[in-house]
Amino acid sequence: MKTCKLKSAFTPTPIYIVAARFKKPVAVLTGFQNTQSRRKLVWGFTLVEMLICLAIVGIVLTAVAIAFDACVANYEANKGISDSVIKANQALSRITADLRCATAVDTNSEPNNQCAMITAEGKDITYLFNQSEGKLYLVENATSTPHSHILCENVSLVRFDRTTDAEDPNKVTSVQITLTVGTGNSARNFCSAVTIRRNL
Q: pTM for the complete prediction?
Protein backbone atom coordinates (compact mmCIF):
# COMPACT_ATOMS: atom_id res chain seq x y z
CA MET A 1 0.00 0.00 0.00
CA LYS A 2 1.38 3.36 -1.06
CA THR A 3 1.60 5.94 1.69
CA CYS A 4 1.38 9.69 1.32
CA LYS A 5 4.35 11.70 2.55
CA LEU A 6 3.35 14.71 4.63
CA LYS A 7 5.39 17.73 5.54
CA SER A 8 6.87 17.74 9.02
CA ALA A 9 5.08 20.95 10.16
CA PHE A 10 1.65 19.83 8.90
CA THR A 11 -1.02 18.33 11.14
CA PRO A 12 -3.38 16.15 9.07
CA THR A 13 -7.16 16.39 9.46
CA PRO A 14 -9.57 13.50 8.94
CA ILE A 15 -10.94 15.01 5.72
CA TYR A 16 -7.45 15.44 4.26
CA ILE A 17 -6.44 11.87 5.21
CA VAL A 18 -9.50 10.42 3.49
CA ALA A 19 -8.90 12.60 0.49
CA ALA A 20 -5.22 11.66 0.36
CA ARG A 21 -6.07 7.98 0.54
CA PHE A 22 -8.22 8.26 -2.58
CA LYS A 23 -5.80 10.73 -4.21
CA LYS A 24 -8.69 13.15 -5.06
CA PRO A 25 -8.68 15.84 -2.40
CA VAL A 26 -9.92 18.55 -4.72
CA ALA A 27 -12.77 16.49 -6.09
CA VAL A 28 -13.96 15.50 -2.61
CA LEU A 29 -13.98 19.07 -1.32
CA THR A 30 -15.61 20.39 -4.50
CA GLY A 31 -18.38 17.81 -4.25
CA PHE A 32 -18.98 18.72 -0.62
CA GLN A 33 -19.27 22.40 -1.51
CA ASN A 34 -21.66 21.68 -4.38
CA THR A 35 -23.90 19.68 -2.02
CA GLN A 36 -24.04 22.60 0.39
CA SER A 37 -24.88 24.97 -2.48
CA ARG A 38 -27.70 22.75 -3.67
CA ARG A 39 -29.10 22.59 -0.14
CA LYS A 40 -29.10 26.37 0.07
CA LEU A 41 -31.00 26.68 -3.23
CA VAL A 42 -33.74 24.36 -2.00
CA TRP A 43 -35.06 26.89 0.56
CA GLY A 44 -37.76 29.31 -0.82
CA PHE A 45 -41.48 29.79 -1.53
CA THR A 46 -43.34 27.73 -4.05
CA LEU A 47 -45.97 29.12 -6.41
CA VAL A 48 -48.77 27.61 -4.33
CA GLU A 49 -47.47 29.23 -1.15
CA MET A 50 -47.25 32.59 -2.88
CA LEU A 51 -50.85 32.28 -4.13
CA ILE A 52 -52.04 31.39 -0.61
CA CYS A 53 -50.22 34.41 0.82
CA LEU A 54 -51.77 36.68 -1.80
CA ALA A 55 -55.25 35.30 -1.02
CA ILE A 56 -54.77 35.92 2.73
CA VAL A 57 -53.52 39.44 2.10
CA GLY A 58 -56.52 40.11 -0.15
CA ILE A 59 -58.95 38.90 2.52
CA VAL A 60 -57.29 41.06 5.19
CA LEU A 61 -57.33 44.16 2.96
CA THR A 62 -61.01 43.58 2.13
CA ALA A 63 -61.88 43.34 5.83
CA VAL A 64 -59.93 46.52 6.55
CA ALA A 65 -61.71 48.36 3.71
CA ILE A 66 -65.14 47.26 4.98
CA ALA A 67 -64.31 48.32 8.54
CA PHE A 68 -63.00 51.69 7.33
CA ASP A 69 -66.14 52.30 5.26
CA ALA A 70 -68.33 51.47 8.26
CA CYS A 71 -66.33 53.87 10.44
CA VAL A 72 -66.71 56.67 7.89
CA ALA A 73 -70.48 56.08 7.59
CA ASN A 74 -70.84 56.00 11.38
CA TYR A 75 -68.82 59.21 11.73
CA GLU A 76 -70.97 61.02 9.15
CA ALA A 77 -74.20 59.86 10.83
CA ASN A 78 -72.98 60.91 14.27
CA LYS A 79 -71.74 64.23 12.90
CA GLY A 80 -75.19 64.95 11.42
CA ILE A 81 -76.91 64.15 14.71
CA SER A 82 -74.35 66.22 16.63
CA ASP A 83 -74.91 69.23 14.37
CA SER A 84 -78.68 68.88 14.75
CA VAL A 85 -78.35 68.69 18.55
CA ILE A 86 -76.25 71.85 18.62
CA LYS A 87 -78.75 73.71 16.43
CA ALA A 88 -81.65 72.39 18.53
CA ASN A 89 -80.03 73.80 21.68
CA GLN A 90 -79.52 77.15 19.98
CA ALA A 91 -83.10 77.20 18.67
CA LEU A 92 -84.52 76.29 22.07
CA SER A 93 -82.49 79.05 23.74
CA ARG A 94 -83.74 81.58 21.19
CA ILE A 95 -87.39 80.55 21.58
CA THR A 96 -87.07 80.66 25.36
CA ALA A 97 -85.54 84.15 25.31
CA ASP A 98 -88.22 85.50 22.94
CA LEU A 99 -91.09 83.99 24.94
CA ARG A 100 -89.78 85.20 28.29
CA CYS A 101 -89.77 88.83 27.15
CA ALA A 102 -92.71 88.67 24.71
CA THR A 103 -95.41 91.33 24.95
CA ALA A 104 -98.11 89.00 23.59
CA VAL A 105 -98.40 85.30 22.82
CA ASP A 106 -101.05 83.68 20.68
CA THR A 107 -103.42 81.69 22.90
CA ASN A 108 -104.50 79.35 20.13
CA SER A 109 -103.21 75.92 21.17
CA GLU A 110 -104.19 74.18 17.92
CA PRO A 111 -102.12 73.25 16.14
CA ASN A 112 -99.57 72.95 18.91
CA ASN A 113 -96.63 72.70 16.50
CA GLN A 114 -96.42 76.50 16.18
CA CYS A 115 -96.26 79.50 18.45
CA ALA A 116 -96.88 83.10 17.38
CA MET A 117 -95.86 86.08 19.49
CA ILE A 118 -94.90 89.73 19.58
CA THR A 119 -91.33 90.09 20.79
CA ALA A 120 -90.00 92.79 23.11
CA GLU A 121 -88.70 94.63 20.02
CA GLY A 122 -92.22 94.64 18.53
CA LYS A 123 -91.61 91.98 15.89
CA ASP A 124 -94.45 89.66 14.87
CA ILE A 125 -92.88 86.20 14.56
CA THR A 126 -93.97 82.57 14.53
CA TYR A 127 -92.00 79.48 15.37
CA LEU A 128 -93.34 76.81 13.05
CA PHE A 129 -92.53 73.09 12.83
CA ASN A 130 -93.00 71.46 9.42
CA GLN A 131 -93.35 67.74 10.09
CA SER A 132 -93.17 66.67 6.44
CA GLU A 133 -89.80 68.39 6.02
CA GLY A 134 -88.54 67.72 9.55
CA LYS A 135 -87.52 71.36 10.00
CA LEU A 136 -88.19 74.10 12.53
CA TYR A 137 -88.73 77.53 10.98
CA LEU A 138 -88.71 81.10 12.23
CA VAL A 139 -91.31 83.04 10.23
CA GLU A 140 -91.33 86.86 10.24
CA ASN A 141 -94.97 87.93 9.81
CA ALA A 142 -94.60 91.72 10.02
CA THR A 143 -93.34 92.11 6.45
CA SER A 144 -95.56 92.11 3.39
CA THR A 145 -93.99 88.84 2.29
CA PRO A 146 -93.25 86.59 5.28
CA HIS A 147 -89.69 85.35 5.43
CA SER A 148 -88.82 81.91 6.74
CA HIS A 149 -85.51 80.95 8.33
CA ILE A 150 -84.51 77.37 9.13
CA LEU A 151 -83.51 77.08 12.76
CA CYS A 152 -83.04 73.33 13.01
CA GLU A 153 -83.18 70.29 10.75
CA ASN A 154 -83.69 66.58 11.39
CA VAL A 155 -86.52 67.40 13.81
CA SER A 156 -89.17 64.77 14.49
CA LEU A 157 -91.36 66.57 17.06
CA VAL A 158 -92.06 70.09 18.34
CA ARG A 159 -94.84 70.95 20.81
CA PHE A 160 -95.84 74.25 22.36
CA ASP A 161 -98.15 73.63 25.35
CA ARG A 162 -99.58 76.93 26.59
CA THR A 163 -100.99 77.73 30.02
CA THR A 164 -103.43 80.64 30.23
CA ASP A 165 -104.38 82.85 33.16
CA ALA A 166 -107.36 81.61 35.14
CA GLU A 167 -108.86 85.11 35.31
CA ASP A 168 -108.01 86.13 31.74
CA PRO A 169 -108.07 83.23 29.20
CA ASN A 170 -106.59 85.52 26.54
CA LYS A 171 -103.37 85.89 28.51
CA VAL A 172 -100.69 83.17 28.25
CA THR A 173 -98.68 82.87 31.43
CA SER A 174 -96.29 80.07 30.51
CA VAL A 175 -95.31 77.82 27.62
CA GLN A 176 -93.77 74.38 27.81
CA ILE A 177 -91.64 73.48 24.78
CA THR A 178 -90.83 69.92 23.75
CA LEU A 179 -88.37 69.32 20.91
CA THR A 180 -87.09 66.01 19.58
CA VAL A 181 -84.17 65.70 17.17
CA GLY A 182 -83.43 62.51 15.24
CA THR A 183 -85.33 59.22 15.10
CA GLY A 184 -85.03 55.77 16.66
CA ASN A 185 -82.04 55.12 18.89
CA SER A 186 -80.40 58.39 17.85
CA ALA A 187 -83.28 60.62 19.04
CA ARG A 188 -82.52 63.42 21.51
CA ASN A 189 -85.27 65.11 23.53
CA PHE A 190 -85.19 68.71 24.76
CA CYS A 191 -87.69 70.31 27.12
CA SER A 192 -88.03 73.83 28.44
CA ALA A 193 -90.68 75.66 30.46
CA VAL A 194 -90.90 79.43 30.01
CA THR A 195 -92.79 81.90 32.18
CA ILE A 196 -93.80 85.09 30.38
CA ARG A 197 -92.63 87.90 32.62
CA ARG A 198 -94.83 90.65 31.20
CA ASN A 199 -97.97 88.67 31.99
CA LEU A 200 -97.17 88.08 35.65
A: 0.61
